[in-house]
Automatic annotation (TrEMBL):
Its main location: endoplasmic reticulum. InterPro entries: Glycosyltransferase_ALG3. The gene is Alg3. Keywords: Endoplasmic reticulum, Glycosyltransferase, Membrane, Transferase, Transmembrane, Transmembrane helix. This is Dol-P-Man:Man(5)GlcNAc(2)-PP-Dol alpha-1,3-mannosyltransferase. It is an enzyme of class 2 (transferase). Pfam families: ALG3. The chain crosses the membrane at residues 37-53, 65-82, 111-129, 135-162, 174-191, 227-245, 292-311. Coiled coil: none annotated. Residues 388-408 are annotated as: Disordered.
Length: 408
């Protein structure tokens, strides 16, 4: 027998999609038992396919099988990213696969749309690692169209595009992202453009205090206060600025040089631990593989840290939001140097975070513990990737080469 709570969000999703099937193109009129539709158009199309595949949403067991397949695909994409960087010890993958009841519930029991968005996002990151930037931007935008939390990765993507292509080369990639959003939302934009934009991209939406996981220790009036929301936004922007200036940027030149043509910039400084620590290439693999490994680790670090900063400063985290960053936590914990004795504290941090997310309803203790764990990870990322005061012998200079068609 399926648990009764399986039907709550799934049924609402199907009701929202059914309104579209019945010809409703006014986004403000698409509703379910849990309220109005608040996701972009990509969500409608993907769950429309699930709607028909499961007999108009009636075969929940089949939907769970499909989401179990999505769960395995998501793990495959995550493992492929981790294998490219070789920073996480193998035993940690056990915790990622088997030790999270909450993640299994989000995927297979509750059938949320968050896992769909994250799986597409991890596919996009795999494409970025393959230097397929245009296809990666297309998939990134598709993930945004399923759920807007993917925008937490957007500052990292913008930084990488500027670093890789410069401001002029970055514009076509951003146009790909924007164009897909327009194409997907076009049927709704033609009927009620304001209604579609305000519903699907509502950045000011209020959250209910009873569902919050991270701010339970605050009084409800503070949690709902707009000044508190503005303070979190400022903290988020400040964190992104600090990481972009001092942890993501690896060149001796000013960060404004990202706006230049990449061929006219100085080579990256080898002093930054982000380059030297995040990847330690073996001598046997040669310089070329070492350089590629450093690039992979640098890209993943920027994406995952960008998202993590957003999670830390979120106005509210609900239980399904755990999937936003669960699969990135091992990398964030092990991307910095780790002695043999330091492995256990990192495993302990993973365990405490898991315990916080499995405490229902959340308590003052669980929400405070979650913030403490997030703070410790941030401190490790900041100090563990700090620039080294001693400069080593720079790598041999290379003449700028023409950009490959694959990268374009």
């Amino acid at each position: 027998r399926r648990p009764a709570d399986t039907e709550i969000d799934w049924k609402a999703y199907m009701q929202e999609v059914e309104g579209f099937v019945n010809g409703t193109l006014d986004y403000t009129q698409l509703k379910g038992d849990t309220g109005p539709l608040v996701y972009p158009a990509g969500f409608v199309y993907i769950f429309l396919g699930l709607y028909y595949a499961t007999g108009r949403g009636s075969d929940i067991r089949l939907a769970q099988y499909l989401f179990a397949g999505l769960y395995l695909l998501n793990l495959l994409l995550v493992f492929r990213i981790y294998c490219r960087t070789s920073k996480v010890p193998p035993y940690v993958f056990f915790f990622m696969c088997c030790a999270s009841y909450r993640i299994h519930s989000i995927f297979v029991l509750r059938l949320f749309n968050d896992p769909v968005a994250m799986a597409i996002l991890f596919l996009a990151i795999n494409l970025f690692l393959e230097e397929r930037w245009s296809w990666g931007c297309l998939l990134f935008s598709l993930a945004v169209s399923v759920k807007m939390n993917i925008l937490l990765f957007a500052p990292g993507l913008l930084f990488l595009l500027l670093q890789r292509f410069g401001v002029l080369g970055c514009i076509p990639k951003l146009c790909i992202c924007a164009l897909l959003q327009v194409v997907l939302g076009l049927p709704f934009l033609l009927v009620n453009p304001v209604g579609y934009l305000t519903r699907s991209f509502d950045l000011g939406r209020q959250f209910q205090f009873k569902w919050t996981v991270n701010w339970r220790f605050l009084p409800e009036e503070v949690f709902q206060n707009r000044v508190f929301h503005a303070a979190l936004l400022l903290a988020h922007l400040a964190g992104l600025g600090l990481f972009a200036l001092h942890r993501w940027h690896s060149s001796k030149e000013n960060i404004l040089t990202l706006l230049k043509d990449p061929a006219k910039r100085k080579p990256a400084s080898p002093r930054l631990t982000v380059n030297n620590i995040l990847w330690v290439g073996s001598k046997e693999r040669g310089r070329r593989q070492g350089r590629a490994g450093r690039t992979f680790a640098w890209i993943v670090f920027i994406f995952f840290s960008s998202n993590f900063l957003g999670v830390c400063c979120s106005r509210s985290l609900h239980y399904q939001f755990y999937v936003w960053y669960f699969h990135t936590l091992p990398y964030l914990l092990w991307c910095t140097p780790t002695t043999k004795l330091a492995h256990m504290p990192k495993v302990l941090l993973l365990g405490v975070i898991e315990l916080c997310w499995n405490t229902y309803p959340s308590t003052v203790c669980s929400s405070l513990s979650l913030h403490i764990c997030h703070g410790l990870i941030l401190l490790q990322l900041w100090y563990g990737t700090a620039p080294s005061p001693v400069s080593h012998t720079p790598p041999p200079s290379r003449k700028p080469t023409a950009m490959s068609k694959k990268a374009q």
